[in-house]
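Quick note —
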Amino acid sequence: MSVERREILGQPKRILVKVGSNVLTGPQGPKEDVIERLCEDIAIVRSMGIEVIMVSSGAISSGLRKMGLTIRPKELSQLQALASIGQGALMGMYEKGFERWGIRVAQILITKEDLGSRKRYLNIINTLFTLLHWGVIPIINENDTVAVEEIKFGDNDTLAALISIFTECHLFVNLTSTEGLYDRDPKEFPDARLVSLVERVDKAVLSYASKDKSLFGTGGMESKLLAAKKVAMAGIPTVIANGNKERVVSRLLKGEDIGTLILPFGQRIPKKKHWLAFGSYPKGVLMIDQGAEEALLLNGKSLLPSGISRVDGSFERGDPVLIRNQKGETLGVGIVNYKAADLEKVMGKSSKELERVLGFKTEDEVIHRNNLVLISRFK
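Predicted structure written out below.
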């Protein structure tokens, strides 16, 4: 299997390594010895000529230790306060761990709203590429200090998947406290079998996943599989492996049969469409009629004003909006060429009437097919 692994993984130029709370932390807080070993492992990967981006959990648990707490609070304000206390300490451990290898690190804190804004998203990506060009390892975490439920990723698995896609990584390594994906929960079934290879994340594979979460973690195996599915649709393989293993990342890159390898599938689609599907923050909804639905789904057409039956929300030209059919089902998301107030005036009308009604015409299409992604593509 090692030869096959080497062939599948190839020679990646850039990888993302996500480290879960269960790997980094315990009842006494962050495990400094684990972080030191991880830094050594990443240094080895860097010596192989591979760029590394990291997504690291552990800020809240670090805050818990600093405050002498043993139970994770439930109140959002307390969690945010703990994150603000612990994030600096966590980065200090990474700086110390990488310093001995002559590697600099940079902290980047992100909310879902940051990636949902096209302008902020581009700024973040440009910053990441600049850091990589300078030889600096970006260490990313959700900005728990300011994130509220409406703008939270929910778990760092999702955040890591999006960053992997947007930075065009060649491999996503998700380090957890288990050996990988098992066909049954190994805590309940001693004969549970490790699944070494997953060709596609479907309902059967998802049924294997345990949703158990630890005191410190926010996602179980299911969230890791869903993250792997996202990157698979961008042509990126995933390895879910035990982060407590010695030099796990460098060893799997050399072809060792470690953890669960999840293969990519389908054709790569542009980063912009992945941003629309997973990263954008829709500002409104366009309800369309059956004719427009068929044109989008069956014929790959753009959305014209004649197919719109209702406009909901307040949005401007260039904002992402959801597209729904008459049953209320979400069909896709796209970037609009007209603001909501203008679309309310021209919905149901032909493109030829745009200039007469509005006094101007930006485009014939309300949403061009190049700026549209159908949700069915990601199911």
